Amino acid sequence: MAPSAPKAAAKTPNKKKNKKDKVFHPKSRKAGQLERSHLRKQKLADASGKRSKNLVAKADKYAFFFHALPPDIPSLSLPEIHDIIKSVWLVRHDSLIEVERSQRRPGRPQSARELALLEMKRQDEEVYRTAIPDLSDPQTVELFRAWEDRSHDPAYLHLLRTIRVSSTNPDSLVVEHIGAREEGTRKLEKVAQAKEKVNQANREASRKEAEIAARDASKMDLD
């Protein structure tokens, strides 16, 4: 029996060397560019996170007023808005805070939950320094009720007219934001007014031209 031919040695594929990350000198121009790029991205991420947090807090506050709004009225009076703030909004955490206090033994520090509730209550008191939906305006109330059809999307809230009210001067309010819908209406009104001015100027020019033509015709008749 003929001896079998020796097997060819299997070729071992050349392993590619892993590329090493290029290291730049800390004081080089490229290192400075990378550092600035990183800081810029970090600032954008922080700003985005802050905006998201503020939007969630705004939606929570607006959701409260949405559910506090009686379903069968076109709008609220200013005293009624203050009553909702004082009797419902500002005391909504009080019962839970009282439970935490009653369960705390004398001399013991406040629990994490009690501290969190107190912080939420403090933030709720900022309602007098921040904007709320203008529930005294029937058009805003109508738009606000439609928020439910948008699944309470926070992006919808910019359409609403918002106001600031004062605990020390409860008979006054300050318009914080006229609302995108009202702003659009005002822009259309301004466009219409500008168009009317142009038309009026054209009518005046036509009238003067007619007067001049009439005078010229009168002179020709006299001649």
Automatic annotation (TrEMBL):
<protein>
    <recommendedName>
        <fullName>Translation machinery-associated protein 16</fullName>
    </recommendedName>
</protein>
<dbReference type="InterPro" id="IPR021346">
    <property type="entry name" value="Tma16"/>
</dbReference>
<dbReference type="GO" id="GO:0005634">
    <property type="term" value="C:nucleus"/>
</dbReference>
<feature type="region of interest" description="Disordered">
    <location>
        <begin position="1"/>
        <end position="52"/>
    </location>
</feature>
<feature type="compositionally biased region" description="Low complexity">
    <location>
        <begin position="1"/>
        <end position="12"/>
    </location>
</feature>
<feature type="region of interest" description="Disordered">
    <location>
        <begin position="191"/>
        <end position="223"/>
    </location>
</feature>
<comment type="similarity">
    <text>Belongs to the TMA16 family.</text>
</comment>
<dbReference type="Pfam" id="PF11176">
    <property type="entry name" value="Tma16"/>
</dbReference>
<feature type="compositionally biased region" description="Basic residues">
    <location>
        <begin position="13"/>
        <end position="30"/>
    </location>
</feature>
<dbReference type="InterPro" id="IPR038356">
    <property type="entry name" value="Tma16_sf"/>
</dbReference>
